[in-house]
Amino acid sequence: MAHSDIPNNAHPRRRAGCLGIARDEAGRVLFVRTLYGRGLILPGGAATEGEWFDDAARREFAEETGLHVRLWALIAIDQVAADPGTGSCEGVNFVFDAGEFTEQQKADMRVPSGAVSEIADFEWVHPTEFDTHPDIAEYTARRVAQALDALKYGMWLPLLRHGRPVQPA
Question: Domain of 104: which CATH number?
């Protein structure tokens, strides 16, 4: 099917999830514990209409942790199917590198007042524990492991807007 054969109003509905992976000096990954039954997930959420994905990841990270992070690169893209059981539409998750946190950044983390109905707490989990951690879904463990491998081997993607590099903000 040619691109011109698809009417502009017939594109499928997709959610753009914008997530950040932060690590500490011990190599552990930051997860947020949600209150809505999904266990431990990466900090992040959906982009709003017209919002740049890196801006959405930064906004969501701040809304959930109280910290404003720099995003260094896009390190994974994970497409997920719709879930009729939950009503979730098909989505694409963009995973960004939020860098290595200092002890001070870790100490400064707080669940902001606007997120207390959504986020219970934070947990730092070492990659060797992803597969056996009872609160990390298998798909989340796989997503994070793949993103960490991309970081390890320097396989990140540049952040671009209309073909121009975006500087970490």
Answer: 3.90.79.10
Please, are residues 156 and 150 in contact by the beta-carbon 8 Å criterion? Answer: yes
8 A C-beta contact, residue 12 and residue 59: no
Average pLDDT, consecutive stretches of 10 residues, N- to C-terminus, the chain (169 residues):
61 88 98 90 96 96 95 92 87 96 95 94 98 96 98 92 84
pTM flag (> 0.85): yes
Distance CA 136, CA 166 (A): 32
Residue 167 falls inside a structural domain: no
For residue 4, being part of any structural domain is answered with no
